[in-house]
Write a structure and sequence with these properties.
Elements lengths: L12 H21 L5 E5 L3 E5 L1 H27 L4 H24 L6 H22 L8 H20 L4 E3 L4 H40 L1
Antiparallel strand pairs: 1-2, 2-3
Helix pairs in contact: 1-2, 1-3, 2-5, 3-4, 3-5, 4-6, 5-6
Amino acid sequence: MKNNNHFFQKRFIPNYLTILRMVMAIVVVVFMLCPFGGTIYSFGSKLSANFRVSDILVGVLFVTACITDQLDGHLARKYKWVSDWGKLWDPIADKVLINSVMILIAVHGLTFAWVPVLMIARDIIVDAMRMTAAKNGVVVPANIYGKLKTVFQMFALILILFFFNRDWDVISHSKDSKILYIFAQNGMMLIALYFSLYSGCKYVVDMQKINKKRN
């Protein structure tokens, strides 16, 4: 007789990837809080940067976690491996990964502190409204701008972790070069903030429209 109670089942692959992403998020946070290793990478005679071993591991783990986020969603949709557990924990894993890294890079002065504050506040408000609506039988579908927010958040954090997580020793210290540096470091993050706030506002408007139709 075929045993269907074995631990590994294909339909749970998205859930396994979600668990893996949460584990990697915890490791990323630990490595960012407790850095180790150190070496100097030189780029010609004009530019050098100090990258620790933990910095590289953090970047690689974060990219891998982002890939699992896209992969588990793709598998769940393609093969209909959707579960209630996955619906609950997949967005939680995303928020644990992204929000924790955003907070830590803000603490280290790698982005404006008010950027993660606004993004996290937006998530809390929207999630609270979504749960309240669900209790009343109202389901508001996610909009494309929310997905763009997540994509730009991931790309912004990848850029910061790989290119701006160390102090770069640049020969030119002019005011213009510093302004350009700050813009390059935070530009993608500000775009992500725009989509975050816009998608949040659109969600509120869409929910109000649905409530009016119900009433």
